[in-house]
């Protein structure tokens, strides 16, 4: 299934007049907050942060932009490099999809991009392919547009980038999806990069004799099957050393580019565990299942794990290719995690709010900071761009993701209902920033042309590690409940005393009124005595 879907013209027109609402809803507002940092980021699909705080954006149209900092306005972004527009192939899930900025930038002012081009793999043949490709994200016929991809090194001087070296060319494809994917730095300064099988996702694709991307003389099935053959770049994760990244030699498989995993369908995005150096790879499925696969630290082994595509999808044989003769003897690794596109997840909130049917794992990042508390150290966040949901795993005691403890962070409340007044949340890239006492997750929303910021606010109840008194979040919660209950009880007592005082005052008589009530009419004898002269009042009455 395609990773980056287009925006049909009619939806764009409706958006102008109906003001399509951009909405992402936090599942638990007591833990997270979400806001749009930048709107109008064009077609940015990949971001990188330098150690000096600059933000680079890789635009699908073959453009690299630079922003002074994460606090800059979106208008502050400047274009520092652009691929020849006639050279860049952007139809479907093609374009500039991978980018990595040198870890010592600007001291080492280089950027690497992985970009689809309207050419074939042979760098000596620079002729434009016949214009059978659609414009933008759609409009063409799957299987009719042949294009390759290139790994390009860019040198930047005074915010102007120039193509310094085309390091690699490959990934010839006639499908509108399953092309290239991600670039990420290895711990040793080398780089990992991913590419899809380059096949059609609308029909079974074993290659077509005589097609521009078909390798003549190779009698093996091609198309989706190229994921299995180690002399093809398709359906692989590759590794390139630091020295080769800085060299001027065109790299090929076995000559500077090493296969570290195969049998993948569309490994669009992956993230590297900061402790184990294992790769967590999202592999977009075909009909039934999506996968997250783990590649054990490729720097520590020469083994090449095989994840089974096109024979296997999730835990089962593929209904399209599983009966092929090559599948009977294929030994593959089962996915670390797989999920059904029809059933989704049973975790709280997912069934109600995460779309099912068309699903695709699309963004991954590990949090390496300490500001969010120990429970968030080395924790994985990931998204499914078609479900339009963001998830996270709690860690095990070994500080690796715990499959049994996944939770929902964010969703789009219009995804399940297909409300056209609510724009899609199409997450295609994640990155974290950690500066001083602040940390945040940033998410590239391709469909809304926006960069979204997600904060973990549960950390406001977490005592810093340096404190001599360490309280668990559960203890803090209990304390808060007890204090609130005590305040409520005090309020009830005060209210009762006030009411009692009011009732007592209501039934008491004023002093003047009491005196007037005590005086009764005098008897005739008393009246006679009162009227007598004072000197005779004490004398006996006459007999």
From TrEMBL:
Domain Glucose/Sorbosone dehydrogenase: 85-384
Protein name: Glucose/Sorbosone dehydrogenase domain-containing protein
Cross-referenced PANTHER family: HEDGEHOG-INTERACTING PROTEIN (PTHR19328), HIPL1 PROTEIN (PTHR19328:SF13)
Stored Gene3D superfamilies: TolB, C-terminal domain
Keywords linked to the UniProt accession: Membrane, Signal, Transmembrane, Transmembrane helix
Listed CDD domains: TM_EGFR-like
Source organism of the structure: Spongospora subterranea
Xref: InterPro entries: 6-blade_b-propeller_TolB-like (IPR011042), Glc/Sorbosone_DH (IPR012938), Quinoprot_gluc/sorb_DH_b-prop (IPR011041)
SUPFAM superfamilies: Soluble quinoprotein glucose dehydrogenase
Pfam families: GSDH
